[in-house]
Amino acid sequence: MSTQFSFHGGVHPPENKQRSTGLAIQTAPIPAELIVPLSQHIGAPSEVVVAVGDSVLKGQVIAEAVGRISVNVHAPSSGKVIAIEKRPVPHISGMQAPCIVIETDGKDQWGDHQGLDDYTAISKQALIDFIRHHGISGMGGAGFPTDVKLHLGDDHIVNTLVLNAMECEPYITADDMLLREHADNVIKGIEIIAHLLNPHHVMIGIEDNKPQAIRALELAAKNTSLNLDIIVVPTIYPSGGEKQLIKLLTGIEVPSGRIPADVGIVCQNVGTAAAIYEAVYEGMPLISRIVTLTGEALAHPHNMRALIGTPLKTLLDAAGVNKQALYRMVIGGPMMGFTVDDQSIPMIKTTNCIIAATYAEMPPAPPANPCIRCGMCEQVCPAELLPQQLYWFAKGKEFEKAKHHNLFDCIECGACSYVCPSNLPLVQYYRFAKAEIREEESEQRKADHARQRFEARQARLEQEKIEKELRRKQRAEDAAKAQAVKKDKAELHSESEQTVSAEPDLKTLKTAAAVSRTKLKKAQKALQNAEEKGLEGQDKLKVTVTELEAKAQAAQEAYDQALNAPAVSEPVVDIKQLKTNAAVARTKLKQAEKALAKAEESGEGDLADLKAKLVEQKAKTETAQAAYDAAESGGQSPAQDSAKLDELKAEMEAALGKVEKARKALDVAIAGSSPAVEKMKLGVEKLQSKYEACKAEYEKETSQNSSVTIKPLSAEQIAALKVDAEALQAKVAKAQTALDQAVASSSPAADKMKAGVEKLQAKYEEAQACYEQALAPSTESNTSQLDELKAEIETLSTKVEKAKSALVNAQASNSPAAEKMQAGVEKLQSKLDQLTQAFVQAGGVPVELEPIDPKVLKQQVSIMRTKLKKAQTALDEAEDDNQSELKAEVERLTLAHEEAKVKLDEYEKIQLDKAAAEGVDLKQLKVDAAMARAAVTKAERAAEKAREEQTDDLTDIEQQLIVAQQKSEQLNQTLSRFTD
Amino acid sequence: MDYILIAVLALLGLALAFGLLLGFASVRFRVEGNPIVDQIDAILPQTQCGQCGYPGCRPYAEAIANGDAINKCPPGGQSTVEALADLLDVEAIPLDGGVEEEPVKTVAYIREDECIGCTKCIQACPVDAILGAAKQMHTVIVSECTGCDLCVEPCPVDCIDMLPVETTLNTWKWDMPKPGVQLIVTDLRGEVAEEGTA
Amino acid sequence: MALIRTSSPHLHKAVNATDVMRLVVLATLPGLAAMTFFFGWGTLINVIWACLLAVVFEAIVVKMRKRPLGFYLKDYSAVVTALLLGLALPPFLPWWVTMVGVFVAIVIAKHLYGGLGQNPFNPAMVAYALLLISFPVSMTSWTMPFLMVEDGQSWHVMGFVDTFKLIFSGIEPAMIDSYSGATPLDAMRHRGGQTTEEVWANAPVLAQGMGAWHAVSAAYFMGGVFLIYRKVLTIHTPLAILATLGLIAAVFYAIDPYQFADPFFHLTAGATMLGAFFIATDPVTSATSNKGKVVYGIGIGLLIFVIRDWGGYPDAVAFAVLLMNLSAPFIDQYTQPRSYGHAKAKRGMKGGA
Asked: What ipTM does this complex have?
């Protein structure tokens, strides 16, 4: 068997192989500690399935495959898992990676393991899975999981199976010795692989420097039925490179960037074949391998069968290392292997050789001369590249050019560096360039990705904006439609002077009101026009105007009413409504009278008609008035849902009462330094939580109802909350006093009490927040924002509490860290205060509608609170000497705070009550006022224009303006009545 | 007189002809979009960090195309400046602010126990790399984070750190070989002369 | 225990740049011996003088560039440059002309471009061309080979001392005249309308002295073969030069034997062999890939013939080599080898010039 093919280049480094073939394969000692890295190959690291402290048996799975390119990891020997941590692994970087460390027990006790009786009996998939579960990965090069390669038959036509027995690197003899001693196993392993891949032809490539191995192989191959050729090739480095081997044996080149399977070839290492044999026939997972120990620093260079995870030190010691002479430790061959500097590094599945070299054997590379472009590298390059060009490009960081010169076809065999007369570290340059290019590419990918995401985000934001706009438009349209639909209804209602329907749609009503107003204005304008020009039909117009005026008013009032109306209540019993109705009727009556008088004066129009109308109107007014009176005397009728709410509220109040009672008891207990304080505290807390649950439910209920804002109810709620807050405040004050006393009397319970005070304080704050929150929705503020803020405050306040209690403890135990903790607490506290303030401010957004005074008040309150807290912190921190002073300060501040608080509350209450009492929605009023002002401005502008253009209808416009001004004035007055 | 007329007419004719030609060319060969902006944008690191003073990488690319300085991108470092100089055929200038070395790549990390779920960082993130909802703890999708820093400032509780990207076995890479012999004086001073090799 | 950590490979072939240079020096020795034998001591003196100067210049420049002196002197590259220049120069060239030449070669053509490995032009040939243009008379007067001396004595070249004196004092021009004469290429160039046959008959250097040139060429050839055998050179460049030159000369000789010299004359006269094996193969300035080297060699062969037959200077190796040096980077771009796994070789250069 000879080969007619060859590949370009190649070198003949001194082989130094016979040194380690003198002895048969020995079994390496079991080390005290096995270090099994989780990632022994390309692909995802396996996932640990044992825990520290677990006992494992030999062959037991200790880490499971994750993803496709991954295999299981097994315990190489029995023992106990003592650590799962980062350890140095065999990698050129010298970095650490997660490993499972097993303390061996020396028994080397096997777990369950069983081979397959007949591997042809099970499906190929099952067989491949079997191999995967036994942790078989390539034992020659990068350690690629073997099962992936065995799957290649699925989507590729595999014609040729190439077995790599070249072992072209100097020094290494692991495969040589394996073939010499276990050629049968290898052939059987090949049969398994062939069974899976079903190739037409199997070739074993072996270099002619291993005559004994060749003989053993030939002998073993006699028994096989495979179409198998053993091809002996001349020794040249790097004939064992996968692509070079394929070229050598078949004359086919694997296209750049493709895998051999793309040309119908699969390449496997003979070591892998042997491992597959062991797994399939004997059920032995890949937990040991043959490794060559060689190098001049070893007294007995030979091959060993060693467990995966054995530290190099154990192996080197077994081979009689001369530590003084050891200069360089290489894992792998001298051409492509890498150096390691730590003897605790374990061997892994791909470790085929360990070279312990002396200085004389592998001296450091002499200093590099400049490249003289001698071209020797090009002559030896097995990939037919231009190594020196690549060198220049790598050095100059001209990576584009390097790529163009096929840098990525470089197999890093080291032949160029080997022959380089200038001793340039060429391979390192290529590795550097490759890494840079890969990084650049990945960065570029990442940048592109980021750009995409950025653009997607921009698009999304844009889209949201557009959608918002659309929604807004949609709403406007809907409103317009609804208005059109409701128009008749509204007219009907107003004409018949009926009370507004039971389900007042606020929006619709509002639009209806607006429409009526507009109509009125138009009619007025028309009327004026007509009057000026002395046109006919003035009377009709006048009537229309009057009618419209009434309608507009009615609509407006209906809207206002609806806005202020309590929940969906029966219209007949709505006193307010009735009252308004009566008022409206009266107004209409007056208007009708006026119209009649006018008509009479001018002696025009249908007097009779008007009179009749007037009479009608009178009757209506009377009816309305009567209804109102009746309703008023009948008293209020309860709202629909209020019963349930009341129930809840009662429950809540009961809970609150309990809480308060318990608290009082607790306070007393604390004051008396009773031993039951702890228990009581727990009880109080329990009660508190119950109360809170109740409250939450209540609030939920209320918020459900609040879709139709119930003013009186929410006011009540607010009041309740306020009461809560105040009660808590009082508690705080009390507790504080108790604490002061305790501190003064140097009671041992002081610390605990302090914590209690703090807790109370926090609760108070919470309640306060609740209250403020409750206030907020009643004025239709942005609840979500408030909620957020509240959450923040709560988180912070709990943190503050924790920190404070920790601090107190620390202080109590005179811990030196107290100082630091104090600072931390202060920081947190200030942040909390800041947030609280922000919250208050946010809560105060709707309050902006009110005059500035309450805002200032609120701010003062929050500022005082902050001061109070600070003072308390100071008190906590203060040593005994100036405590009393601080205490006084705290008390003073507390008082001031409370005062301010009460003032504020009062004020707010007055405001709300005042507004509520008159049945006027402040906000609505404000909006109306603003609208009126806008109308004035518009009218002014129109007047201006008219004046400039000297148009006829100037007076008309001016009149309009005056009307608008009047209206605006009126509204403003009303508004100012409520808001000053 | 005739000569003058002829000359004037001839020039007019020429002007007309060339005007038409130019007009035609500008219509016929019009370039859609601005390819140079795309090219510049492709070089920029897309951190969208805004350190250049523009709201994102693309606006800066547009600004460069309109003549802004090319050295305002700290995340890209000197290499980006050089790439831009190469593309635009202008002088490579040192990075604004004089940061000489390549910037360390970082990713944001949220200390999750401290996160209060305010969503401020989510709104700040230009590449939607932060996951979370209001009042829920947030976290950074490391693979999407560009290390732009923009989320750090808005965080009300300062729970976001910018951590340098750790080198792992997978991302470890070879360095350029150090010169085996000290070639010139500057080498001895440790200023390994990259400009000499470029 | 401090174990070192380095990149693979961990083995190195025991050949370094110094060894390569030393082999080149060794390979020129037969040629030097032949020159000395046929043309007297002048060549040897020139070579030694040039080498001395080269080492001195190199040392000065390396010192000025503040780089380690010993490390750079050890690489023999300056010596090789000087050696090749010395071999190419006429034997009786005055010392200062040689000095100018070496200065140009080492300081200007080599170090000003960045030193070893960075120079785009062959330093020896830059110096030679410069001298040829600056000092045409000195540069074209060769000694007569001793074969031509008619007094019957077999060994009649100028003595060592006389030669030494001649080179270093330059006082006795008459003495030069008695020993100097044209080279065969000169004779061919300045034949004044004679046919080739007439020139051969009339020019004594052709009629009688050609044997000396043949012998010198043979010696260089031997040296070249030695270098190829030792894998210092690849065969591509020399073979391409010689084959091209021989072929084109043969074609023209076949067309018009009266006008053109025979191919054997072209291959053996002047510096053809020296150029083909020692000068054109200078790795720094030649093309990189094997294919490129062939193209480069063909170019040199063509240019040698063209310049010899139609140019203004008698010998053309220096100009041919320099011109091809100029185009070597370009050749490199278009002669990348087809790498393993690629259907086609790549062309040109990506990412800028």
From this structure: 0.86
